[in-house]
Write a structure and sequence with these properties.
13-stranded antiparallel beta sheet; 39 strands
């Protein structure tokens, strides 16, 4: 092992070519798109988008035809309505949308190591569509802690979820409906958003023009729903984030006052509002590590059919728009492949228990050329002891002087000292040079007053 100047450490490492798992590259957005039957045809499908660089994207290949819907009659619609990433293995959970007569499925997709093509797929029938608006959709999905998938559907007239708006697709593929009663569900409205904290379902319905809505809460086992809020413009998806229920709204067409609304999940009261400077957000996702947002816009408005990112203050940047080559279809949902993820355990167990501060990470995203980038480690069981940080391009599990070294010793580099930020927290200043991209694995090692070693849990991320 060796010590080198900080700015040279990452540049000296070989680029890791194979991620931990074969899915969407870390930090990137994955976007679900539908074909809404326009002339000329605008097929749907799935796209992977770089989170910060406009115009950097690719279409995922070998996507099941039902999610692309390449050839539809004028006025018909079909394709991918929304997408989530399963935390356990990175699989894509994709909900479908379709005109009357569509066999509405939940799709589970695995991609190749670079996230370019589907290598395996399964689908689970939820029902056949026919609704007051000409079809039906999987409004939104949520992966439960046991791997089951909670689904919310609209316009199902036959099949496993006929007569129901909610159900659970188990890891074995069985579909179990959830009986929910919604007092005074407005005529002509449709279910458009849903999420869960594992105990309750939070869901929203909107009017056909999207300018009126209501949000309810109901136990995940079913029952009578409780109205939380009916004052917001139509939510484009719901998320739970740091104790808040987050709803994305739609403003009147042509006005730049769409917001994300942060609600109390118990009372439905609006706690805060983040203006986004555009007029329609049909879907959004939250990057917990950077405190920023991925946004997709619908088929009308100032940023129609586009993908954007927004900083913590709400300032938006368009990443993809209809003017981009090959950018087809109508975006309806977006998910973010997590970057900056911990792995392994801090050792020895019962020691200082060094863990990474990730929600959010105070140093932001690991972008190439970000010489101010850092990550923070915290001692959860005592003061911060003096330590060093080490990097490698692959993980390992090696016993070493009473700790578990979570890095591959071959090519391991000691970067420098952990810089104290407080009595219990320390910073790792990575200072990413321009032009350096790829996979990085990181761990800190500390010396106790008793001259024994302690080590943090591991951290892996991709420099973008």
């Amino acid at each position: 092992m060796q010590t080198r100047p900080l700015v040279l450490v990452l540049a000296s490492l070989p680029v890791a070519t194979v991620p931990l798992r074969a899915q969407v590259p870390e930090g990137h957005f994955v976007v679900a798109k539908a074909n809404i039957g326009t002339n000329p045809q605008q097929p749907g499908g799935l796209y992977v988008v770089h989170p910060r660089s406009p115009g950097r994207y690719w279409q995922v290949q070998n996507v099941p035809p039902d999610l692309v819907a390449p050839n539809l009659p004028i006025g018909a619609f079909g394709g991918a309505a929304n997408v989530e990433i399963r935390p356990s293995d990175g699989a894509l959970i994709v909900g479908e949308v379709g005109s009357t007569g569509t066999a509405l499925d939940l799709h589970i997709l695995h991609l190749d190591p670079l996230g370019r093509s589907v290598v395996s797929a399964s689908r689970h029938l939820l029902g056949t569509t026919a609704g007051p608006h000409g079809g039906g959709q999987v409004a939104q999905t949520h992966v439960l802690s046991n791997g089951d998938v909670l689904v919310g559907v609209e316009g199902v007239v036959s099949g496993p979820l006929v007569g129901y708006r909610f159900g659970i697709v188990s890891t074995t593929g069985s579909v179990t409906p959830i009986a929910v009663t919604v007092p005074s569900f407005p005529t002509g409205w449709f279910l458009n958003a849903m999420t869960s904290d594992g105990s309750d379902i939070f869901f929203a319905a909107v009017s056909f023009n999207w300018l009126a809505s209501a949000i309810w809460r109901v136990p995940i086992t079913g029952g009578t729903a409780t109205l939380l809020n009916n004052t917001l413009p139509g939510p484009g998806k719901l998320r739970l984030h740091r104790g808040n229920l987050v709803a994305g709204g739609r403003a009147a067409s042509g006005t730049a006052n769409t917001s994300l609304y942060f609600l109390d999940p118990v009372t439905g009261a609006v706690i805060s509002q983040l203006g986004l400077g555009t007029d329609w957000i049909s879907g959004f996702a939250i990057d917990a590590t950077s405190g920023t947002y991925a946004l997709v816009s619908g088929y009308t408005g100032q940023t129609a059919l586009s993908v954007l990112w927004a900083d913590a203050a709400g300032a938006t940047t368009v990443l993809c728009s209809p003017s981009a080559p090959g950018w087809l279809g109508t975006p309806g949902g977006v998910a973010i492949a997590p970057n900056l993820q911990s792995y392994g355990r801090a050792t020895p167990v019962g020691g200082s228990e060094y863990r990474w501060v990730l929600s959010p990470s105070p140093g932001g995203l690991p972008l190439a050329g970000n010489t101010g980038f850092f990550v923070r480690v915290a001692s959860t069981n005592g003061p911060l002891n003096a330590g060093v940080w080490c990097v490698s391009t692959s993980e390992g599990f090696w016993p070493f002087l009473g700790i578990e070294l979570l890095l591959n010793p071959m090519g391991l580099v000691i970067g420098g000292a952990v810089v104290a930020a407080s009595a219990t927290e320390g910073d790792v200043p990575l200072r990413i040079p321009t032009g350096v991209v790829g996979k990085v694995f990181l761990q800190t090692v500390h010396l106790t007053p008793q001259s024994t070693l302690e080590a943090s849990e591991g951290l892996h991320f991709t420099i973008l």
